[in-house]
Predict the structure.
Amino acid sequence: MTTGTRDSTSQARGGIDGTRLRDERVGAGLTLRDLAAKTGLSVSLLSQLERGTTSPSIHSLKRIAGALGVSIFQLLAEDSPAQSVVRAARRRKVLLQEGDLDYELLSPDAKRKLEVWLGRLEPGASSGPEPASHDSEEFIFVLHGRLRIEFGAVTHELGPGDAIQYDGNQPHMISNAGPGQLEFISALTPPTL
């Protein structure tokens, strides 16, 4: 695959599955023009993504997944058949924000009722420039480092072995509150990333 126009320098490793993107778009009853209007991306870029001639930025991938109402992992290439074993070397990976934030899908796919992933945040990095919300319930378990999670004026700081469960509809943001890398496991139902 070649690298196409990017609106961010972060990209999904492994690329997007163009056939899956087209199937999701058609299944949602959208034309390329409709999807372009919903995402703010060009018809040309969306067509290239469906044909597999370019790779999307994470920003574009999030826009597309949001417009289609699916998880970004559902659009990534290398989908495994329905199974319960996920080998460490075969996990789907997504890098965000210049590599300061990355996720690895621990569940077999994002087509089930539960999505589980391993997250890593570099020192000083956060999940985004501002709090975000999504229609799901989320659970986070800290493996290494210090996690700060903010819900408006309420802030919690968690260390290794600590966990939190919350309604993802509340605008929230996570950040690395420690000097070293933060590593955590998160489970969402239904999948939203």
